[in-house]
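Collaborator request, handled under Task 6.
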Amino acid sequence: MESYEKQKLCLEQFHAELSNFVLDICNDKPLVFIVDELDRCNPYYAVKVLERIKHLFNIPNIVFVISIDKQQLSNSIRGYYGSDLIDADEYLKRFIDIEYTLPDPDVDKFSSYLYEFYDFDAFFGTEERGQYFKRDNEQDNFLKIAQALFKHKNLTLRQIEKIFTNTRLSLKMFSHNEYVCPDVLFLLTYFHICESDLYEKICHKNYDIQGLVDQLENSIPQCIFKVDESYNKYCNRFFLFTIAQLIACYAVEGYAHVSLITDKEPNKNRELLFTTKFMDNKTLVEALEWTEHQYRGIFALSHITNKISLLENFKN
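C-alpha cells returned to the collaborator:
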C-alpha cells in the first residue's frame, strides 16, 4: 500500500511539473513528440512505450505523432500478449486518437534522389569513363530499369534504398575502363536483395535457359513485358532488352556464347530457341540480335555477380 501511494504521488507530481513546463515554455502551442519506427522495436519495448505515453504524458497541449507500419506494430502487440485472440486494432485505438495514412511515394523522384545522394555520377560521369563509354547513356539506362521495376513491384522505400546502397557498393569494384551494363547490374541487385533464392540459383547456373526464362517471367510482373501500350511502350521495350542481355550473358559457357535464336536465313525471320509466356517474342528476338552485335554486349554473368556478392576481392 505504501509503495502504491508513493507511485501515485510521484505520478501526480510528474503531471503537475510537466503541465507547468508546457504552460511556461510553449506559449499556448502544443509540445509535439515524434516517435518513429516503434514497429521495428522489441514487442515488449513497443507496448511499454505506448502505455507510458498514455499514462505519463496524457496532459493538455502535449501531442504525440507516432510513425508506424500499423500491421507490424499489431504483430508486436499480439507477440507481446502471446495470443492471436487479442484485437490489435482495438487495442491501438486506446492510444491513437487520429489516424492518417501517407500516400504512396513517387518512386521516380525517390530513385532520382538516391542516385544523387549516393553520387552515382562519381562512377558513371567521370572523364576517365567518358573516354571509353561516351555513347552508352549509362546513367539513363540505370534509372530507367530502376524506375520500371519499382513501379510494379511495390517495394518499400527502405528496400529501394537498400538496393541503391548495394548497387553503389558493387560499382566501386569496377574500374573506369571496365564495362558494366548498369541495367543488368541493377536487376541482378534487386534479385540479390529481394529474391535471394532466385539470385543464388542464377549465380550457380541451376537453370537451363528455358528454366531461367520461366523463372524470370514468374518473378517480374507481366505488365512490364507489354510493348503494345503507348504509355509504357518505350520503358517496357527497354526492359526486354535488359532481360535479353541477362539471358545472353547467362548462356555464356567459358568464353563461348551459346546462340539463343535461330541462324539468320534469307527472307526468313529469326526465332527464339526457347518459349515464352508473357514476353513479346518479336521484341526479344530484336533485343538478342542487338546484343549479339554489341562487342561488349555478351560476357560471363560472373563479371557482374562477383561484384554484387562482394566476391571480387577473393578471386584468384
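The cover message to the collaborator said: "Strands lie at 31-36, 62-67. The two ends are 73 Å apart (CA to CA). Please let us know whether this matches your experimental observations."
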